[in-house]
UniProtKB/TrEMBL annotation:
GO MF, any single term: ATP binding
Binding site for ATP: E32, P33, N34, H38, I39, G40, H41, A42, K43, A44, T227, R257, L258
Protein name stated in the entry: Glutamine--tRNA ligase
Segments carrying motif 'HIGH' region: 31-41
Species: Paenibacillus oralis
Keyword set, alphabetical order: Aminoacyl-tRNA synthetase, ATP-binding, Cytoplasm, Ligase, Nucleotide-binding, Protein biosynthesis
Residues covered by the Glutamyl/glutaminyl-tRNA synthetase class Ib catalytic domain: 25-333
Span of the annotated motif 'KMSKS' region: 264-268
Catalytic activity, as annotated: tRNA(Gln) + L-glutamine + ATP = L-glutaminyl-tRNA(Gln) + AMP + diphosphate
Subunit annotation: Monomer.
Length: 552
């Protein structure tokens, strides 16, 4: 889908073009390269790229890299890869840090106009004097420094004469403003750190709230789309553009974030999961990162269908991950070949099948998509079935294999259980069955019916495989990013979020490549893992199970 559903931003853009206020729509996706992108970012990416595209405009990828301490090229590269993988192409690639000189000059302009001053108060003192929602703030004793003194001090801040935190540059607006963001916000701070792009050239860095509008204006962004928590920042955004006399005037619009229940997305929390070894990296298939979803086996199409469904509005509400699962199934349904895998093998010997003989059986690759054709699967005297598909003493309504009962082997024959072989501990190690050659799948046999159909793989031809089964990382089904506290969230981590089992797949899957996707009959959708899979030794990630009571 290459458009957005009806939404308020689209209406605004339509108006702006009609009135001539805007000639070409320019949007940007502005991640800070301090972590990997997550599903929430996918929504922001989709909104920016799709909206601009709908109006023949353009979108920039801009790294908002104004905080040298947390940023890294590793993140820059992963972000580029993720945006491309989602299927979007940026028209221009920018780094906010390329504008540091211009930003500095605009700050100097503010000083010259008497609209900014150097403050010697500490961060704590500044916070104390800022006031509250009900109480106005108080002026800093340094607020009335002369323009000359401010110019001199700011130049010396840049020159590295002061230590971190010793001085800041503040906008001079109104300490009594009902909007706390307008109470002389800090716009520059001292940070002696090496920047991934500018190295040691700078030791003062602009604050996000000041830098962002300037970045937008420099690039000619027309519609600066961000999430709702920036709404209160909009007056300062507009103040910055006006007072720094930027020739091009961007406008900020806010939409509701995408949050998923049972999921944390903040980079700080995700980083804790990575750093403390709860997951095996930012791209662990349990992570809500784009790279985690990719490794899990989720496709860009499923993600885009999901964010389309989530829509663009100012409404707040967390989405049930089952909604995402629904779109994953919908997307994989017609494109994933349907094959058989046994995750917990139990050997079955078909005693009346000739020893040493193998026949090839015809199996359709996708019953809902005939275009995917057929394949041949081997069948012989020994096969594996799922351990849970056999019970020695079954309850009523158990229609799978038990002594004396007959079931259908998918794509093969009816088999009947005659004997159970146990080891010294009394555990079932093998069962003996007979098959009925008359009942061959596709032969049109109607002589009698069986209630259960089970899957299997040929024991001698089957390929050993590892299966990695996932449960949600966070156990609380009602919790989301906003309700899960950073200090306690590791207690919510599900100790059973990963289960590794070993079983078998059909021989045709021996050379499955990383990112190949399959439906395993009765189990769910699986994706060949990019990290652990080796040629001839496939490792499969559970993407999503088949069962869902969820209906849109
Ligand atoms: P986090 O708070 O999760 O660490 P962030 O907001 O700091 O992420 P940025 O790199 O600053 O991450 O985000 C880039 C863009 O993505 C911003 O415009 C931001 O509004 C948007 N964005 C981030 N999270 C979400 C979300 N959950 N839903 C929609 N948009 C989001
Ligand atoms: Mg951020
Ligand atoms: Mg944030």
């Amino acid at each position: 889908n290459n458009s957005t559903p009806p939404n308020f931003i689209k209406n605004i853009i339509t108006e702006d073009l009609k009135s001539g206020k805007v000639q070409t729509v320019v949007t940007r996706f502005p991640p800070e390269p301090n972590g990997y992108l997550h599903i929430g970012h996918a929504k922001a990416i989709w909104i920016n790229f799709t909206l601009a595209d709908e109006f023949g405009g353009r979108t920039h990828l801009r790294f908002d890299d104004t905080n040298p301490v947390k940023e890294d090229v590793e993140y820059v590269n992963s972000i580029k890869e993720d945006v491309k993988w989602l299927g979007f192409e940026w028209e221009e690639l920018h780094f906010a840090s390329d504008y540091f000189e211009e930003m500095y000059n605009r700050a100097v302009l503010l000083i010259k106009k008497g609209k900014a001053y150097v403050d010697d108060l500490s961060a704590d003192q500044i916070r104390e004097l800022r006031g509250t929602l009900t109480e106005p703030g108080q002026n800093s004793p340094y607020r009335d420094r002369s323009v000359e003194e401010n110019l001199d001090l700011f130049a010396r801040m840049r020159a590295g004469e002061f230590k971190d935190g010793e001085k800041v540059l503040r906008a001079k607006i109104d300490m009594a403003s009902p909007n706390i963001n307008l109470r002389d916000p800090v716009i520059y701070r001292i940070v002696h750190a090496t920047h991934h792009n500018t190295g040691d050239k700078w030791c003062i860095y602009p604050m996000y709230a000041f830098a962002h509008p300037l970045e937008d204006a420099i690039e000619g962004v027309t519609h600066s789309l961000c999430t709702l928590e920036f709404e209160e920042q909009r007056p300062f955004y507009d103040w910055t553009i006006a007072e720094t006399e930027m020739p091009k005037v961007p406008h900020q619009y806010e939409f509701g974030r995408l949050n998923l229940l049972q999921t944390v997305t903040s980079k700080r929390k995700l980083k804790m999961l990575v750093d403390e070894g709860y997951v095996d990296g930012w791209d662990d298939p349990r992570m809500p990162t784009i790279s985690g979803l990719r490794r899990r086996g989720v496709t860009p199409e499923a993600i885009k269908a999901f964010v389309y469904e989530a829509g663009i509005s100012k409404a707040y509400g967390s989405i049930d991950p089952k909604t995402l699962e629904h779109f994953i199934r919908e997307d994989l349904k017609l494109r994933a070949p349907r094959t058989m895998a046994v995750l917990d093998p139990l050997k079955v010997v078909i005693t009346n099948y000739p020893e040493g003989q193998t026949e090839m059986l015809e199996a359709e690759n996708n019953s809902e998509n005939p275009e995917m054709g057929n394949r041949q699967i081997p069948f012989s005297r020994e096969i594996y079935i799922e351990r849970e598909d056999f019970m020695e003493n079954p309850p009523s309504k158990y229609f799978r294999l038990f002594p004396g009962n007959e079931v259908r082997l998918k794509h093969a024959y009816f088999i009947k259980c005659n004997d159970v072989i146990k080891n010294a501990d009394g555990n079932v190690v093998e069962i003996h069955c007979t098959y009925d050659p008359e009942t061959k799948s596709g032969s049109g046999f109607t002589g009698r019916k069986v209630k259960g159909t089970i899957h299997w793989v040929d024991a001698s031809a089957a390929v050993p495989a590892e299966f990695r089964l996932y449960e949600p990382l966070i156990m609380d089904e009602e919790a989301d990013e906003d309700t899960i506290e950073e200090k306690s969230f590791l207690d919510l981590v599900n100790p059973n979020s990963l289960t590794v089992v070993h079983g078998f797949v059909e021989p045709g899957l021996k050379d499955a490549k990383p990112q190949d996707k399959f439906q395993f009959f009765r189990h769910g959708y699986f994706n060949v893992d990019t990290k652990y899979s080796e040629p001839g030794k496939p490792v499969f990630n559970l993407v999503v199970s088949l069962k869902s009571s969820f209906q849109l």
